[in-house]
Amino acid sequence: MSVYVQLDGADGCGKSSQAQALVEWLRAQGRETLHVREPGSTPVGEALRNLLLAPATGHLQPVTEALLFSAARAELVAQQVAPALARGGVVVAERGYLSTLVYQALATSPGLPTDWVFDVTRAVHGACLPDAVFVLDVGADVALARRAARASDRIEARPANYHARVREGYRRAAALDPRAHLLDASRPFDAVQQDLRAALTRLLA
User: For the chain, which has fewer Cβ within 10 Å, the N-terminal or C-terminal residue?
Assistant: First the structure.
């Protein structure tokens, strides 16, 4: 049975580490599992990732960011996600369309209309919308502390009040989207991972 899930949340929420652990667990069970990241995991996606996250890129309009992120997503769905699902595999993605809804619509002022973002999302994904989006929720101070050990990209370098709006944006997005499930990621790593594994077990049943 094919399953497509996305792990999302503010920078520093732990999605990359949780996704890697989840993928290792799935593969240990013999599941064909594809691990991808947004933007990225295709040649076009990686090129757009470099452009979008490089500090040298400077300021971009929210609509420009949304279209570039969505372009990378469209290539990822067509080249990687859809073929993996057609083979009956499991896809675990770091980030997804909810990031665009939050960063370019809900956390930005003036932000893009949410209906416009959902329209673009439907055009990008077609029939390949995820089965579930797990939003890893942590306070902005916790996320900042977790990011302290690495160099900030263009978006991570934005001020603290912006990242506080991102956190609230994800909470709002989780209420707007029936696919989204909010998880308290301030808990110990293993507790969050167990919740993710339990959710995947239900989806794969």
Answer: C
